[in-house]
Amino acid sequence: MSRLMASLRSGNWKSLIACFVYFDTGFTAWVLFGPLAPFIARQISLSPAQSAFLVAVPVLAASIVRVTLGNLFQCVDGRRLALLGITLSSVPSLVLLTPVTPGYDLLLVLGAFLGVGGASFAIALPIAGSSYPPRVQGLVLGLAAAGNVGAVLDGFLLPGLAERFGWRSATAAVLPLLALAAAAMLLWARDESAKSGSVARAFAGLAAAFTGLTALVLLVSGGALGSQERGQLLLPLLGALLALAVLPRKYLAVLAERDAWVLMLVYSITFGGFVGMSSYVSLLLTTQYGISKVHSGLVMGVLSFTGAMVRPVGGLIADRVSGVRALLVVLLGVAFANFGFATLMPSLSGGIALLATLYLCFGLGNGAAFQLVPHRWKEQTGLMTGIIGAAGGIGGFYLPVVMGIARQGTGSYQLGFAVFGALAALAFVLVVTLRERWLVWALPQDASARLEVPAASGKCARSAGVLSSPHESLTACRTNDRGA
Known about the structure:
Structural class: mainly alpha
Shape: globular
């Protein structure tokens, strides 16, 4: 405990708390439609695919917005961006409290605004980490990102409020929480990261990405991209291209790096699984097992709490043994749990047990994955937080969409679970393949100092603990030794 407290005191702990509160309330707004989806679907008669698309739009919107928001963070004080995000996240609740009866398309547009709450990830994490040394980044970023416990509030509060007051009135519960987040960011948060770049261009990119994505969502809903299923599957690709088109070209260089793509895949599985399942699990439980809407919300809350609380543990473990080793165990667990669900389609108790296993792995994996980012991209942490976080959001979009398509097309969720099990298995194989190379830069310094490099002589072995560049590899190390 004393070591933990010393780690927290090594930076600005008040700013860390403010970032936690901000991300917590942003996450609460982000998955607002998740536990309310059964109520909405009943009132406006949505098909399984339409219901899945409704809860998936905020997830995708967050993934696209956070890329351009991460770019804007490079040149604007993070507190100002946080206040902007909080304001936009409050729009859906304010609109739904008016007498205007919302149609499906309006709800989709409001879902895009909810996505700004999820994009808080690209602001909260780099602010929290900006005052802390590299040796505790896994713990600090894990604590800040444990704000995804906001999904717990949705699951526990919203179904009961919707039963009593109606689902539109229930959305007002998020407004005082957003106000609290605004106060915390104003009073406690401090952004100590370096700033550079054009504010006007970065802000224009953010506005273009948000409005463009909203237009794409409406085009998919109207059938302009073909069948509903085809349009939904194409939407993330089109949205990602839109976000990349407005980024400065110099930042796109990171997309040429293999490490970036592998971490994006990993995070699309861990964080994408967490947020996607949190958005969809209420629909899954009510349609697969027939439990009540209120009870499904309570189960969602417990599962989300599990995943959120172990995220800092995942970061702490990664600080000790490296995120690489932690991810190998996590990805194997995700693959087995998904394949188990696809094969058995278990009873309610067995299904909840497998879902709990998934959430446990999601939380640990989220902390482990982001422990790697500051080590690999020291000068571009804000940007990479946005890009890798965007991949997580895209994974979170596809999960409910694929589940909805599988349910509507086959009458079962088996195909959906099988698809995500296969993706986790692929990510596991890729991390195993890159394991030796990644450990050079990913190991904690005290552990990397003890790293034994096969076929290396003394000079290289002694320097293994102080390799600072992510581009240095074991191969280069051995080459240097032979030259010596």
